[in-house]
Amino acid sequence: MELRTLRYFLAVAQEENITRAADVLHVTQPTLSRQIMDLERELGTALMLRGKNGLTLTDDGIFFRQRAEEIVELAGRLERAFVEKNKESPPLPKRSLGRTPAG
Amino acid sequence: MELRTLRYFLAVAQEENITRAADVLHVTQPTLSRQIMDLERELGTALMLRGKNGLTLTDDGIFFRQRAEEIVELAGRLERAFVEKNKESPPLPKRSLGRTPAG
Question: What are the structural domain ranges in chain A?
Answer without folding.
Answer: 3-78
